[in-house]
Structures are given as C-alpha cells and as structure tokens.
C-alpha cells in the first residue's frame, strides 16, 4: 500500500482525548483479491444472469431509454416497457466500459483514481436522521448536514462525498439539491456527488460542478468530476428518474455507479446465490445502458446484496451473508473489467460494539474484494436510517487500521534486527536499544481512539469509552475547522446560478 498527497495531520493528547490521523492519500491493496467462488461457479452466476435478461427481461420506465436500447438491438415490443437482451448484446455492450479512470476535485490534491487494486472510502449517504450521544436521534437538517460536510473535509480517510451525509429535510425539496450542493462544495473540497432524482436535478448539479472547477464543458467531459448512484428498483426495474440520470451523466462522461439493492428474501430470492443472479442481471442491464448512451463512459459495478430478518423483514448488514455477497460482487466486477462499488454497513441502532463488529465484517470483505469505491464508509448507523457523528470517528479509526494492515511488511536486513537481538541477548529488553530508538515515533500505527494508557491512567482521565472519546474528537474537529478557500469569482458564479435556479422554482416534484 502506498500513500501519497500528504495533507492535514493531527496528533493531540489532551484531557484523555487522543486523535492521530494518517495523511490523506491513495490507498493500494498489496494483496490479491479474495476469490470466494471457483471460476465455474462464477460463470454459472453470469450465465444465469444472462438467461434472466433474455427470458424475463427488465422494465425500463423511460420511453427514451427503451428507444435507445431498441436501436442498439434489444428486444422492445410495441406498447411494452419490458426490455429483453440477447446474451451476446449484453457482453458486447459492457466490453466498452473502462477499467480505470481518474476523478477530479475542485482541489487537485484530492483527485482520486478508480479501478484495479485502488481502494477509496466515502462518507455515509442519505440517512433521514442524524444522531450523537449528546442530543440523540433527530430528523435530518441543514445544520447537521453542514457539520458532516466539515468532517468530510477534515478526515483524511474520506476520499469522496457519496451523497448528503444526512438528508437536510428542512430545505424544500424543489431547491434542496441546489442549496445542499452549494453549501457542501464550499465546505468540502473532496470529489463530489449528485443525485439522479430527475433530469433537472442532475443537470443542475453537473453544471454546478463545472462552475466550481472553473472549467469548460469540454474539459469536464475529458475529466470526470461527479459521481451519481443509480439504483435498480429491485426486482428488475429502472424508473424514469434513474434512467434520466444515466443518460445525462453518461452523455457527459461522468461516472454512474449502477447499484441494485437486493435484500435476499425480500426483493430478491432467499438464497444468496439467487440474489446475486438478480443483482448481476440488474447491474449488467444498467451498465449496458450507460454504454448505449456513450460507449466508453465510466461506470462502476455496484453491489448491495444482504439478507433480512425473516421474522420482521428488517434488513441485516455486516452479516456473514453480506460479506459473502461483497466478495462475489468483487469477482463479478473484475470479470467484467469495471471498478467495484460496495459499502461499510451495519444494522446497529447505536455506535456500540455491535456497530463496530458488523462494520469490521463489512470492511474486511470490502478490502478483500478490492472494493474501489466504499460507500457509507464513515457514519452509517441503524441500517442506513441514521448518520452518527461518533460513528464517523469510529469508522475512521477502523479504516485507518485497514490501511495500516495494507502496508507491506518490511523484511530487510535492517528490519530482521539480528544485531539488536545479539545486543540484548537472553533475558533483556529492547526499549533502549538503538534499533528501537531510531524507530520510536514510527514503529507502530497509533490509533485515534486510544491513548495507550494503563487502567489507572485511563481511569484518572475520566474512563471514557471509545464512543465517548469519539464524541469529543468530532466536536474538537468542528471547533478547529476552517473553510477551504474558493476563488471569489467562482463562488460568485456558483451563487448566481443557485439564486437564479431557486428563483425559477428549482426542480419540479415528480
């Protein structure tokens, strides 16, 4: 693993609050991806998916999309919104999708690559509630939205913003995308995201992204700068808004993250293998749609298959079934040669031990699968219904552990330490050796949430739990936050665009 682009680094020890960040940088996994299925088993899922697309087909609710697919050779019968694909057509279309590309931020220091063994992490996206241990669970609002965006700027393992970290419900829907994006892009310089909730909304965000980067439409076409996620309405359907998003983003060479949301036993077959067949069919159809619009447009294979509690129907995350689905999704993405989106998720209702071990299950699987774009990387709670300030910090700590684990083990003549072993001999210790002292500051990863105190020192400092310490850390970060600079002319142009569109009423409700 190589880290580059050093950025903000903090090392504080005060009142029992420890906070150590790794520098911002690209993360590369040095390990081979984990292959949970044999080649034959993977091919069986692929072939079953092609049969679903040929025989059952997908519903495409946008007439414009059906016309494009029909012109490309898909089977679209008059008066029907069902589209069927011959296997050869799907396989030909997905071959034009690129395996790797670079995402561009308004601050080039935060550009990031997608594909291969590169792993990037993003903030939680779209919960309707915010929570912390001081004020509890509350409806998503603009103030909390802005504070999450400030944390996204400050936390070095957050490579990109993956949507609203919490839904600012107090902003009227027709202008929410305008006001939220305007504020968010001023508060955070990381790679941006726009929602494909309608053609008008995604076109607004595309234009605002161009303005913020201070570039022409032609340059933005050459330099992907904005992500969107397009979810299939599982089972086997794409709605009008999602398809409009695919068309407008792909036209402009901006990456679409095609992500079926397939919960096994609910909107997908109860077997994980069957749910993966459906996930794969839906993903292939969406990827094919992007390439019909613009062959070579960047696209990501998204996986979001998990299981449910069969007694209550509640989604379960961070489970063994979820981890297996993540690993298979990675194999499928590599088979098709496109970057892979997956997620760090859990089903806990509080930033507690359950949230940590379920997230760790998720994080291990995303790392082993070579997940290139980890959505909901920091702050997800309650199965996606809440964004937690403390969980942002806890997740950052777990991700830093992952990154430290991905550092290759040094095996050199010096690191083998034969001279140091001879110096100490039997029965001694290594604390004072020259070999140790030369590496005193850098020998080990220093966790964010630990002061390495013994019980007595920890107790004297207040005996804080990891969650309580995370609460102090996030609040200290917000106190220290400074808004990144923006060119005054660019900010003026952005504000003028938003003011004009708000005066026009924003985007109509659909």
Automatic annotation (TrEMBL):
It holds the Pfam family MTTB. Its EC number is 2.1.1.-. Gene3D superfamilies: Trimethylamine methyltransferase-like. One of its GO terms (biological process) is methylation. It is an enzyme of class 2 (transferase). Belongs to the trimethylamine methyltransferase family. This is Methyltransferase. The lineage of its organism: Bacteria, Pseudomonadati, Pseudomonadota, Alphaproteobacteria, Rhodospirillales.
């Amino acid at each position: 693993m190589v880290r580059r682009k050093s950025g903000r680094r903090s090392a504080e020890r005060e009142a029992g609050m420890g906070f150590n960040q790794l520098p911002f940088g690209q993360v590369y996994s040095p390990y081979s991806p984990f292959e949970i299925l044999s080649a034959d088993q993977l091919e069986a899922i692929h072939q079953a998916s092609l049969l679903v697309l040929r025989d059952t087909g997908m519903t495409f609710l946008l007439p414009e999309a059906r016309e494009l697919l029909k012109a490309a050779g898909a089977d679209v019968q008059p008066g029907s919104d069902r589209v069927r694909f011959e296997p050869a057509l799907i396989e030909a279309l997905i071959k034009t999708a690129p395996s790797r590309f670079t995402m561009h931020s308004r601050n080039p220091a935060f550009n990031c690559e997608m594909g291969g063994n590169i792993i990037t992490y993003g903030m939680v996206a779209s919960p309707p509630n915010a929570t912390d241990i001081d004020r509890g669970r509350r409806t998503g609002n603009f103030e909390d939205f802005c504070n999450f965006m400030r944390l996204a700027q400050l936390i070095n393992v957050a490579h990109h913003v993956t949507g609203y970290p919490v839904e600012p419900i107090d902003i009227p829907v027709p202008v929410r995308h305008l006001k939220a994006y305007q504020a968010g892009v001023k508060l955070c310089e990381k790679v941006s995201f726009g929602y494909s909730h309608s053609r008008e909304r995604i076109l607004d965000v595309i234009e605002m992204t161009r303005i913020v980067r201070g570039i022409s439409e032609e340059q933005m076409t050459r330099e992907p700068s904005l992500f969107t996620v397009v979810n299939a309405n599982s089972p086997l359907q794409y709605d009008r808004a999602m398809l409009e998003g695919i068309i407008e983003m792909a036209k402009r060479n901006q990456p679409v993250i095609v992500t079926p949301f397939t919960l096994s036993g609910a909107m997908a077959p109860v077997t994980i293998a069957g749910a993966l067949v459906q996930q794969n069919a839906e993903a292939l159809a969406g990827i094919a749609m992007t390439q019909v619009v613009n062959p070579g447009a960047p696209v990501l294979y998204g996986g979001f298959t998990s299981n449910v509690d069969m007694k209550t129907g509640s989604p379960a995350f961070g489970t063994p079934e979820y981890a297996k689905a993540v690993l298979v999704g990675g194999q499928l993405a590599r088979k098709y040669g496109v970057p892979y989106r997956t997620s760090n998720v859990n089903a806990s209702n509080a930033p507690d031990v359950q949230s940590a071990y379920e997230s760790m299950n998720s994080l291990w699987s995303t790392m082993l699968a070579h997940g290139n774009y980890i959505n909901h990387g920091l702050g997800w709670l309650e199965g996606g219904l809440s964004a937690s300030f403390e969980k942002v910090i806890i997740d950052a700590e777990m991700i830093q552990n992952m990154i430290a684990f991905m550092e290759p083990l040094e095996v050199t003549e010096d690191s083998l330490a034969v001279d140091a072993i001879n110096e100490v001999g039997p029965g001694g210790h290594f604390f004072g050796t020259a070999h140790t002292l030369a590496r005193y500051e850098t020998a080990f990863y220093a966790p964010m949430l630990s002061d390495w105190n013994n019980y007595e020192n920890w107790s004297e400092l207040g005996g804080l739990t990891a969650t309580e310490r995370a609460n102090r850390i996030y609040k200290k970060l917000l106190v220290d936050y400074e808004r990144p600079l923006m060119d005054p002319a660019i900010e003026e142009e952005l504000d003028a665009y938003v003011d004009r569109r708000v005066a026009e009423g924003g985007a109509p409700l659909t």
